[in-house]
Amino acid sequence: NAGVTQTPKFQVLKTGQSMTLQCAQDMNHNSMYWYRQDPGMGLRLIYYSASEGTTDKGEVPNGYNVSRLNKREFSLRLESAAPSQTSVYFCASSEAGATNEKLFFGSGTQLSVL
Amino acid sequence: AQSVTQLGSHVSVSEGALVLLRCNYSSSVPPYLFWYVQYPNQGLQLLLKYTSAATLVKGINGFEAEFKKSETSFHLTKPSAHMSDAAEYFCALSPTGRRALTFGSGTRLQVQP
C-alpha cells in the first residue's frame, strides 16, 4: 500500500538549473495536485490535474510546468530554478476531484536552490 | 475570495489538557471545511471534514470540530492532549468553483509533559 510516492526526497540545485519532481499514485485516482509548503504560509497550490490529459494552474504557477504523463503519474518541472523556489513540495491525489473529497499526500520533496 | 485564517501559529499545552486550535473561514456560501495533520517529515493526513451533514464532526485520534456559521468558525478540539498529538495542523476550505483545497497557514501544537 504505497499510496502517493514522490522522488527525490531531497534536492539541492544551483540557480538556473532545471529538474523534475516525480509523483506517482497507485490508488487509481483521477485527480492529482502539486503544492508547495513555506513557513507561515501553509500549502499553496501550484498546479492540479482534474483527470488524465488535463492540467490547470493554481495559486502560484509561475516558474513551473507540469505533465500528467498517465493516470498514475504527475510530474512538476522547474525549468530555471530560483532561490524563491526553495520550499517543500507535496504531491497529492484524490479519487475524483470532488470538492468534499479526501486528499492523499506524499511525504514531500525538500528542495533548496542556492 | 474564499479563505481560511488560523489564529496562532504555535500553541503549547500540557499533556492531559484541552486542545483548542482556531480556524475562521471567509465564504459567501457554506463551504466544505477540513482539518489535516502533519507529523514531522511526513505528508498531510485528513483528521476530519465538514460537508454540511452535521455541525459537530468527529475525526480520528479523538479530535472533533464544530461548524458555527454565525461565527464563521471551525475550531478543532480534543479534550485531553497526548504527547503523540504534537504536530502541525492545517485548516482547509474547498472553494466554490475550484477543485483544489485552500489551506490555512498552519498551527504547530506542542505538548508538554
In words, what does this structure look like?
The complex is a heterodimer of chains A (114) and B (113). Chain A is mostly beta strands. Helix content of chain A is 0%, strand content 51%. Chain A has strands at residues 4-7, 10-13, 19-25, 31-38, 42-49, 56-57, 64-68, 74-78, 87-94, 104-105, 109-113. In chain A, the strands form two sheets. In chain A, strands 2, 4, 5, 6, 9, 10 and 11 form a seven-stranded mixed beta sheet that branches. Chain A has a four-stranded antiparallel beta sheet with strand order 1-3-8-7, with no helix packed on it. In chain A, strand 7 (64-68) and strand 8 form a beta hairpin. Chain A starts with a strand and ends with a strand. The mean pLDDT of chain A is 93. With 113 residues, chain B is mostly beta strands. In chain B, the strands form two sheets. In chain B, strands 2, 4, 5, 9, 10 and 11 form a six-stranded mixed beta sheet that branches. In chain B, strand 7 and strand 8 (73-78) form a beta hairpin. Chain B is globular, with a radius of gyration of 13 Å.
